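Notes from the pairing session

We agreed to fold both candidates in a single pass and log them together. This is the raw record for the first candidate, unedited. Please don't reformat it; downstream parsing expects exactly this layout.

Candidate A
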Amino acid sequence: MTEAAASSPETAAGPWNPGVQSDLPAAFTPLITVYRPEHVETPLRDALEMSDLCGLPARQLTRIKPWRLVVHEVLIRVMSDLSVPVGEVYADLGVNFRSIVSAILREGVEPRLGEVEAALAALRAEADAVLRREIAAIL
């Protein structure tokens, strides 16, 4: 790794990037969460094409669906903010974790999913407007 690559935000080691890299065989790429059609609005071929065009990693060019963003956030919050009981056997930890996440999604998020989708749509529209304005200023 070059010194410039080591110091770039994408590759700098830290709490969110411990320096571990995993190169999956290309055949497994469609199975990665950020490329699966049930989780994202951007087809893999489009993400790869945009990546070739602009140089950004394809994983940063996918448009993730609102529900998947919510699921990710709930998973992270439960892991970091709640105490999940281990139970009698170690496998109970996973069962209890999934149970807590499912309850939060079912009772706390699903009834308000329309609000979440509307907020995300507004945020994306605002970002699109900023991008259009900045691109117009350059051209």
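Candidate B (folded immediately after A)
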Amino acid sequence: MRLFCILAAFAAFVIASPTESNWFRAGADVVANPIVIPDTVRPSVTDIYVSLGKTQRHVGNVVGSDLYGHVWQGLARICPVLGGHCNKESIVIPVPYVDQDRYLPGKLVIILKDSRYPTNEKFHNLLIGLVAGALQRSSEDRKNCYWTTYGSQKRRVWFCNVGNTVWASIKDAFIRVEIKAEGSGGTFDCPAILRSVEDSVDDLMPELREVFGRDPTRLVDCGLD
């Protein structure tokens, strides 16, 4: 019944809004084969949804634009535009950590859990940008970072954390990743970074308006874990 309602709503929307029909043509494979996503995962009331996990994951000193670049390049590699979905592979990023007073080489692993998107380059790039932007902003908040020391001389190093999952969706297109890492210091305060992640979504609004043909709605929360 819910799937029927979604299809009916899409049909009515296309008929009533000619300026937005291009968006649906660009995403034709999503509309023709819609995915029913539970309301607890993606609220149907919003066009753009970003949900973050609440459990700490160590990103060390790979933060900000550096982390964004690693995530963007990795997702672009495993998520071909024409494929319509990402390959279920992992992105491995070298990340140092401290364990028992030792500074060690480690890794941050971003695991592609599920995805679906139209074969449209702009749409594809926006989804990747939502994921990368959410992780960038998560790593930049000082509440999610901490000083730690290592070695006999007690050298100090500044490390940061992100959440353990990211779900980003634009209508019925989505990318969902899970994050694993070595290193367990500090905390991750998800509510503290929601405003900043909203700002990262707003940075993409000019392109998102082109996709929708209007001002899309957006929601960012700490719903996944």
